[in-house]
Amino acid sequence: MRIWIRNPLAILAGNAGGGIVVEDGVIVELVASGAYPALPVTESFDASGHVVLPGLINTHHHFYQTLTRAHPAAIDRELFPWLKALYPLWARLRPEDLRLAVRAALAELMLSGCTTAADHHYLYPAGLENAVDIAVEEARALGIRVTISRGSMNLSQKDGGLPPDEVVQDEDTILADCERVLGLFHDPKPGSMVQIALAPCSPFSVTTSLMAASAELATRFDAPLHTHLAETEDEDAYCCEVYGKRPLDLLEEAGWMRPKTWLAHGIHFSCEECERLGKAGVGVCHCPTSNGVLASGFCKTKELEAAGAPVGLGVDGSASNDGSNLMEELRHALLVNRLHYRSASAVTARDTIRWATEGSAHCLGRSDIGRIAVGLQADLAFYRLDELRFSGAHDPIAALVLCGANRADRVMVGGRWRVIDGAIPGLDLASLRRAHGLAAERYA
Questions:
Q1: Is 134 exposed, middle or buried (0-12, 13-18, 19+ CB in 10 A)?
Q2: CB contact set of 141 (below 8 Å; sequence gap of 6+)
Q3: Where does the Amidohydrolase-related domain start and stop, copy by copy (predicted)?
Q4: Of 248, 348, 251, 339, which is closest to residue 291 (Cα–Cα)?
Q5: What pLDDT score does 119 carry?
Q6: Residues of the chain by 3-state class (helix, strand, coil), percent to 5
Q7: How many Cβ atoms sit within 10 Å of the Cβ of residue 172?
Q8: Is residue 366 a contact partner of residue 117, using CB atoms and an 8 Å limit?
Q9: pLDDT-based confidence at 186, cuts 50/70/90?
């Protein structure tokens, strides 16, 4: 089928005022204002009431954390005490609860305009060995593109790490399962719907041996690498005390300084470290809401980009963001960065959109998504401006960020409609809300 998405109210693509043509899940033509497609189309969609963006790409999340939003045990704490409060609750995670948590997170992301999501699951209490399989199954059922990170922790409290013993695994078990899920699910080809990343959790929860072995395994499978790094001053202090090195030095010694590596948070990098990241092509996922909630600090987004490091956006876990809305993250990114750089022109609305699309795609090592261009996947987010909050807005694209858009009217992934009229076809949100809420009660 050739679908003409015609005459959008606004579209984030050059010379496409007349819309775009999609065939077999790929963008095949940009149509100029007042023009018609070069070849006949079999279907058209009137987008005159919609602002059209490339589908948003979330590059850091912890889906399971939707079960512990706004939890009294963790409210108003910074990262280390926050983790210590929540680890015992997460240690009780069951497969059926994880499934609901993943479904809720993915649904919320999709409804905000997200077409690709990366999850970082690193908790493996007994009985949850197939966590990656569950996430892949749920993503396939909803039709969203994903990078599922097979996370890991093997440094528990008895070894001098932060997590409790019951949520960690030994290195051999971790690597065996990493190889299993890479063989089952990882598809590095353009247009793939599922990719697997290897993601040892953080310097205070994994050994340097596991970091190095994960890098070697990822190379074998042409898979990306992901971890938390430079998130807090506590992390810096821990690494200096235990290893006598800063976090980035540990990363480099483990063989991670390369393209297809992306890091979550990246707050406490020095300017010299930003240069090293840029030279190596390592990406950083900026998580402004989570960083604000946990009072972790400000990411050096401009220094990183100037050095050549890709910058993407992520909502982080729903226990530190308390939401999975990627469109809201753009507005938070704008405000946080203007405060940090003390300049209203330092970061624009379009910069934050670029981080959430093209920048995020680069972080994931993908060149087939993130832009509206011929030859790329037809991953698109459609927003209406008919709510009162948008009345009087003169720049439709900037208005999405400045006026606080938070819900897409339509979402297309690979040329297929996955959100229609603000709803996910085939998904009963009310039933999901009830089941998810009941599951969450077990973690009170």
A1: buried
A2: none
A3: 51-417
A4: 339
A5: 98
A6: 40, 20, 40
A7: 10
A8: no
A9: very high
Tell me the mean pLDDT in the region 10-30.
Answer: 98
Sheet holding 416-419, edge to edge: 10-11, 50-54, 380-384, 410-413, 416-419
Neighbours of 178 (CB within 10 A): 26
Going by C-alpha positions, the residue among 79, 365, 366 that lies closest to residue 226 is 365
**CA atoms of 364 and 383, how far apart (whole Å):** 25
Cα distances from 75 to residues 62, 86, 117, 318, in angstroms, run 17, 10, 26, 12
CA distance 168 to 126: 9
Minimal CA–CA distance to 204: which of 240, 168, 235, 178?
235
In this predicted structure, what is the pLDDT of residue 160?
Answer: 85
Structure tokens at 322: 């308390």
pLDDT at 37 over 90: yes
Tell me the three state secondary structure of residue 119.
strand
Q: Residue 251 has what pLDDT?
A: 96
Q: Who's near 251: CB < 8 A, 6+ residues apart?
A: 211, 227, 229, 257, 263
Q: Enumerate domains of the chain plus CATH numbers.
A: 2-54+370-419 (2.30.40.10), 56-363 (3.20.20.140)
Locate 96 and state its tokens: 């059926």
Using CB atoms within 10 A of its CB, is residue 17 exposed (0-12), middle (13-18) or buried (19+)?
middle
CA 432 to chain CA mean position, Å: 22
Sign of the alpha-carbon torsion through 159, 160, 161, 166: positive
Confidence band (pLDDT; 50, 70, 90) for 355?
Answer: very high
Strand order in the sheet with 19-23: 26-31, 19-23, 2-6, 43-46
Mean pLDDT of 169-193: 98
User: Helix/strand/coil (H, E, C) string of 259-306?
Assistant: CCEEEEECCCCCHHHHHHHHHHCCEEEECHHHHHHCCCCCCCHHHHHH
Q: Are 151 and 201 in contact (CB under 8 A)?
A: yes
Q: What is the pLDDT of residues 55-94, one digit of tens each?
A: 999 999 999 999 999 999 999 999 999 999 999 999 999 9
Mean pLDDT of 133-153: 98
The stretch 3-16 carries a mean pLDDT of 98
